[in-house]
Fold:
Amino acid sequence: MERSSKSFNFGAYHPLETIYSWMDDLVAAHPNLVTKEQIGTSYEGRPMYVLKFSTGGDKRPAIWVDSGIHSREWVSQATGVWTANKIASDYGTDASLTSLLKTMDIYLLILANPDGYVHSHTSNRMWRKTRSQNSGSTCRGVDPNRNWDAGFGGPGASTNPCSDSYHGPSPHSEIEVKNVVNLVKNHGNFKSFISIHAYSQLLMYPYGYTCKDAFHAAELDSVGRSAVQKLSSLHGTTYKVGSICKIIYQASGGSIDWSYNLGIKYSFAFELRDTGRYGFILPANQIIPTASETWLALKDIMEYVHDHSY
Amino acid sequence: KVFIGDQVIRVNVESEEQIRLLRALEQDTYWDLDFWLHPVNTEIPVDIRVPYSSLYAVKDYLRAHNIQFSVMISNLQELLDEEKAEMEENNM
Structure:
């Protein structure tokens, strides 16, 4: 059967195997721009793939984007797929994206929690965490966004393995988290770290584990507001901008706090749209509108990062 | 098919006292509630997936404390069934 990335339906939710297979098609269609790299395996042994968009060079300044660390937030993984295709198809025609990719790389981890994603497709649509076994408990899984070494175990994370916000036994205990940590640390030249979640229409920056302002809070706030303005221009979706602690709640062990403390200044987290009616069950016909508006914000942040090297 | 009759209810929190009462509800594991959005402040709504078996008791609790709520999703399983059918159709 002839493979084609053009017949893929971006306006639908797909199981993990379909997305992984589509990644191969994307790479085949854009061999000079996209590579699929395995960054490790999940707890249940599934490969974790990152798509790398690069026009050459070694360890260029790079932008990290991950989606779907919470498995039930399906519109985030779907947005990741659409975004990957958008980057590949707009390279060479979109002047600013093309210019960015001349000097920077983009890494996109579409399925940041593969085991959880499969579990949400096969057994429990409401599953959020990883699928690791917890010693001394019958409850499985750790909240992979409470497992990073950033105020680990502090307020806004649970010590109870049965809780959806269980932080895990130790920082980076989850192999899915550790795989990303290893890649980012080994690379050493990421300038931006963006995590895509759903839902509630927020664009956030550090910190979550403390309500104190990050050193660059004013700049991050300004970048965030500009990005949200672009996002809202497409469909009028309203977003709030602020630090995690101040616009949602204090939450320790989060990924963008870790990346920021590692020195990646432009660290952001999105909570995508839900229209106020569907929560995690956003209908598939809203995937493309969601991804399209998110892309405007993502591109705005990426352009800013490109123009403000440090 | 474990979400038959489950509802997602939305509370537009009006006061610190309501936040306190909702936090108490969140701490109570007996009703097996799944807080999609947590009680934090009066600017962000609280969304709670309530299992069918706990619906009556939870709504009673909210009414007893004069906490206004609306039903965001009236039967979660119906939405999931639609989602699944759409995925299967797309797969074909």
